[in-house]
Amino acid sequence: MTVLTAEPAAVTAGPPRDDRRVAGLDGIRGLTALYVVVHHCWLLAFPGYPANTGPGWLGWLLHGRLAVVVFIVLSGFSLAIAPARNAWRLGGARRYTLRRARRILPAYWAALIASAVIATAVPYLPHSEPPTLDSFAVYALLLQDVVAAPAPNGAFWSIAAEACLYLLFPLVLLLRRRAGTAVTLAVVTVPVVVAGLLFPALSTGSRPTGYTFELAPLFTVGVLAAGIVTAGDRIRRLPWLSLSALAAAPVLTLIAVRGSVWTVANYYWIDLAVGPAIAMFLAGVATRRPARLVRSLSSRPLQSLGDCSYSLYLIHMPVVALVSTLLVAPHTDSRPVVFGVTVAVVLPLCLVTARLFAAVFEKPFRSYTP
To answer: Any stretches that span the bilayer, and where are they (predicted)?
Structure first.
C-alpha cells in the first residue's frame, strides 16, 4: 500500500490556514453522515445483523462501519492539508489542541447529555443503555475506547477513537517530516498487521474497546494523501479517481462474493484494504478532478449537509431508535414498511435537529477566537 506524495510545491509562513473550504470535502462529509443515518434505520428494521435479512438490493446499507472508515481517512486528510502546505509543521500545539477541543467537545457533551436523558427515560431503546455515574464519566472524558462502559448512544464509540487519533496527529506529522511517507506509513501500519496475524481475535467479531489502534493506519493514510494536494503538477494531475476505483474494485468484489457475515467478521482487514482507495478518492476531489464531480459535491445542498454532518452523526441514533421502536414498529409487521416509514420520518427530523444543534453547539465555537 503506497500513497504517492511529493514535497510541497511552496512553503507558507505562519500557522497553517483552515482547510475546511477545500471544495467537495464538506459534501463527502454530509453524504457519509446521511448514509450512517439510513444504515441505522436499516439495522432496526431488519434484525439479524450481520446477516442481511432485508431485500437484497438494500444490502449496501449494511456496512455502516465503512462510513466510519471514510470519516477517519477524511479526518486525517483534511487536518493535514494545511500542515502539508507548511512543510508538514503543525503550526503550534496549543493552537491545534484548542481548535480540536472547540470543534468536537461542546457538541459532543451536549449530545451526551441528551442521549443520557433519553436512555434513562426509555431504557429499552436499542443501541443505548441507561448510564451510570461511572459510565457517564467515561463517556464525558472520551475514554470509551479504553474503558468499557454502557453506551448511552451507540454511535459514540468512534468519537473517542477519533479523539485519540487527534493526539497521534502531531507525531504523524513529525515522522512524515523527518522520515518521509513510506517510513511513516510502515511505522503505523506494520504493528496493526502483525497484531492481526498474531492475535486473530482482534480481527474477528466486535469488541467494546481498542479501535484507535486498528484505525490509526487509516487516519495516517489520509494524512499522507494530503501531500498530493500540495505536490507538483505531475503528481496532482494523476487520475486519482480512476486509481481509487481500481484500488476499491477488488475489495468491493470480495465483499460481494463473501457476503455480509464474513465481511463484518473481517472488518479489521477490510478497513486496511479500502483505506488507500478512499484516500485516493479524496485526493482526486481535492485536486478538482473531475470538475463535474467536485461541482456536485460543492453544491449548496451538500455544503449545507456537510456543515451540520458532525451534529447529524451525534444526534441521529436516539432519534432513529425512538421513531422506529415507538412510532413505527408497533403499527406494522412488515419490515420493509418499517424501514421505509422510519426513513421518511427520520431524515427530515434528523436534518432539522442537526442544523439547530450545529447552530447552537458548533458554529459559535468554530468562530470563537481567544
So the answer is: 27-46, 66-84, 105-125, 155-175, 182-203, 215-233, 240-261, 267-287, 308-331, 337-358
